[in-house]
């Protein structure tokens, strides 16, 4: 029951988690700037963040007032 | 009194942060103390004289004739007003520019202060102001864009523009909408600024729709400012409609790729995406502290939103979400052809369709839109962080801004590159001595070294060669005949026909060499920097030829005199000349002014208009008119679109008067109530 609730929460909260994952990749990219080349981390972070933010926006607009 | 002051720390923070920013911008304000100082760096150039405004206008609009760019006299409403304003107040253009820089700094800073009052509780405002004001004005994008000062003015006032827009959305006072619209009309007068302000307006219109959920009111908000914009800018807009005046630069896929240099995603995220940095690129691209702190500031805005997502109100959530989506959108565009999707889109466009992206050709410039949306996102999200985390957040951001400012080359930009400087006296002397009734050809050196892809002035190597002399005299556009003149191969008669009185060798360019012009009828004098050669022959702007003469640059010395004589002429302004002619038969009138089909000859006899004649092209570059009227006549040479431009001038003036009267009335009415 409890694990089902958690899974449900993760599924419902995917836009926020996607955005956080994107932000985490950006954080790694940002730190690696201090030591060298961040490679493609910023690129993948950007798309995760964009997808997550679009998801959040759609969910916010569709939410009842 | 003292107790009252100490109870207002946010005002103190605003004053402190603004003073700090002004201190950094101080080298751009020095002309206020010394009117002899001028801005001379590349495009960021001012020079004395009413007609020098034309030079600035030419960066905005051109006329194209047969695919070639030619001179157009576009009297843009407020741009030329700068020189007019300088004339009336007896200020130099640089002083007026400094006043505008200071005014825009103060307005923008006040806008941020006002925005913090909209979103934050009083105790949180000082920290927010201390972080946001320096961030907004001292970041690399802001400092770099000073080079295109009209775009920077628009950037500087974004926060106030947004703040007034948001106030209208929440209070619905018409006076706020009028103020907002006036800002739109004034600061959006050049095409780039219009697009930037339009994007901010689009953002607010979206927000309006989502907040009010009322289409009718949203449409009023969306279209009223556009209407005021059109009315205030009707004169230049009328040129677009009437005179084939177009944006100056044609775009190709190659130019889009070239101008996307340094536009990779990681460079956009680190404020390092300038395709033409004014310092060695390594100072930015290999600056680890600058890049780390810049990226961290952008991340900070997203982190504040995501961490406080559940705890902010729906209105703030809408605003923050929309702001961050706009930020991501601008990051997408700013990469230019480095962005695979954008490049694939450009590839689908043909040459004609590519021109629609002309204003975005330097795609990195759009990054200038990002800071104002970061400011909005931070302010709308901050309340969701909780008190302790909010303080920690603002402290961390303040630290990052400090790192960004101290590690970036902004002090070099402001203090050395863009700073106002003394200009050798000979430029001022030539500006008054070279009559605009004659033509001047400016000769660039065949060889001269460059620094950071720019020629430098011999009298100040730190200043990139700009258009400072463009306002002196008047000249012809480049064509093969002018190349012949500049190459030393033109005949004496051609100089006469084209009314070329001066050749100026640009020996003021650092390291210039290889000039070998040697016309025997010119007398050259080396000034301290420039070399001025004066044509000892008398030249005139008007000549008469037989109507059937076959005139080419090579046949000039055999051309017989025409059946008419010029009795006198006068130049009223760059768009209007009068010439008195007595003719015994049809004749060809040569008018030594840059060829443009829009230059009309209107022939009057005894005050009655007899005919209007369109020009034919003479010597590839000047105008000729086949006139059939005989007897004593007055010919008016007029750049025709100027008529519509001047007629349309009454519209912005009436609009401005009405708007200001309404604002005055609403302020007085409020005080009475």
What does this molecule look like?
The complex is a heterodimer of chains A (65) and B (673). Chain A is mainly alpha-helical and 65 residues long. Chain A is 85% helix and 0% strand. Chain A has one domain. The N and C termini of chain A lie far apart (30 Å). With 673 residues, chain B is an alpha+beta fold. Chain B folds into three domains: 2-417, no CATH class; 425-535, no CATH class; 542-639. In chain B, the strands form seven sheets. Chain B has a five-stranded antiparallel beta sheet. In chain B, helix 2 runs parallel beside helix 6, helix 8 packs parallel to helix 10 and helix 9 (174-187) packs across helix 11 (215-232). Chain B is globular, with a radius of gyration of 28 Å. In chain B, 47% of the residues are buried. Mean pLDDT of chain B is 87; it is low at 48-77. Chain A binds chain B through residues 16, 19-20, 23, 26-27, 29-31, 33-34, 38, 42-43, 46, 49-50, 53-54, 56-57, 60-61, 63, 65, and chain B through 210, 265-266, 269-270, 288, 291-292, 295-296, 299, 302-303, 306, 309, 314, 317-318, 321-322, 324-325, 328, 331.
Mean pLDDT of chain B: 87
Question: From N to C, what is the helix and strand string of chain A?
Answer: HHH
Molecular shape of chain A: elongated
**Alpha carbon gyration radius of chain B:** 28 Å
Q: Roughly what percent helix of chain B? A: 40-55%
| Structural class based on helices, strands and sheet pairing of chain B | alpha+beta
How many strands appear in the DSSP assignment of chain B? Answer: 22
The end-to-end span of chain A amounts to: 30 Å
Low-confidence stretches of chain A: none
Shape of chain B: globular
Spans of chain B of at least 5 consecutive residues whose pLDDT stays below 50 are: 48-77
Compute the number of strand runs of chain A. 0
Largest sheet report of chain A: none
Strand content of chain A: under 5%
Number of helices of chain A: 3
The two chains with the largest interface, and their residue counts, are:
A-B, 25 and 24 residues
Oligomeric status of the shown chains?
A: heterodimer
Per DSSP, the total helix count of chain B is 27
| Overall number of structural domains of chain A | 1
N→C terminal distance of chain B:
28 Å
